[in-house]
Amino acid sequence: MPAALAREFNSSLDRGPAFAILKLAARHPAEALPPSVAFFRDLGGLFLARACAAPEAASHEAPADELSRLLSQAPPMAGGEYFRPAIDEYRLVLCPVVLGGGRPLLREQANLQLKLAKARAMDLGAVSLVYARR
Hints:
Blueprint: H1 3-12, H2 17-27, H3 35-53, H4 64-72, E1 89-94, E2 114-121, E3 127-133
């Protein structure tokens, strides 16, 4: 990524990842970018196109086939496995944290439809959770 664009993008992240992605989609729609950045730029562009086409609509969701096509083209990246519809069960172990913070595992961009299938308390306060697709 060109240095000036990287600085602009990093500066935009101060206002949140959604703002940074939408700004990238609006201002740099055809810029050569690393695959993972280009993927999210294109995803933001899809949203912007929907929002501009029908600004009064209650929802700007893309048709499922259009979104599936885009998600199937996601490049290898951390968390990218959550875009794949082939995964039908997620097993998580949550451990209590007294100080500090954690990293979000499932982000809103993935739009997963999950239901809690099983929960089990473990030693030392950890909890085992199993989620299945709806």
